[in-house]
Amino acid sequence: MRHATATTARNLGLAAPGLLVLGIFFLLPLATVVVSAFSGDAMRRFFASAELLDALVNSTWLGLIAGLVAVVLGTVVALHLARLPPGRRALVQVAIALPLTFSGLIIAYGFILVLGRAGFVTLLLAKLGADPATVAQFLYSRWGLVLAYTYYLSPRVILMLLPVFANFDVRQIEAAESMGASHPRALLDVMAPQVAPTVFAAFALVAAVAFGTYGTALALVGSQINILPLRLYSMVADAGSDFPLAAASSVVLLAVCSLLMSVAEIAAARSEARHVSA
Length: 278
Fold this sequence. Notes:
The chain is an all-alpha fold. The protein is about 85% helix and about 0% strand. The protein is built from 13 helices and no strands. The longest helix has about 40 residues.
């Protein structure tokens, strides 16, 4: 009993610095924001504002569409990489993970250099008869944001799904084909149910990232597109003064991202439990 008590006290002592940092720099600011959001009528004003509700809808649309495109592209790439030899696969993984090291501003600047009004691809298309203004208008639209978001969301999906596909027992596919099933049918009936929870978890994760990010959108569209992270940025900038409303916007943003991340964690936990039981 004394040994267990001493071990518990020692563990608490070792964890104390981390808990202190977590409390000061995360829990305390979070509690302050939540209290500020609900202490007055800030939350009511948020849901009574047509512009903020429109920003919430646009952010949800952007997160879901960008997440869906990233998952589709990432699944196809991960399936292909799973068939490569381990050495070549490792080299390709390094190249794929490179966008994860860039900030949102760098990614936006890169797309401007490629698809902006004077971008490399835009000038090439102009020689073929395309209007540079039309190409640039696409980049600075919601679909341009989807394209930019997909660039750095897809590597997250690929890195999540690649171990699942690489370690999948292909003998199950071969057994289904030996019993008369076509290859697409075997993939749909045998592989898809087993990898679906991980794919869904990847979708929820990248949708939450797309919903809450603002650096790329700020550099590409500025205030042209009404999304919640950019509205929150304008509220907390030097010109902002309505901090209770900013706190309410932060809580809504946090709630949506937390919901998506919770869905991802639940799906991942169910997938892991299924693999363990199998």
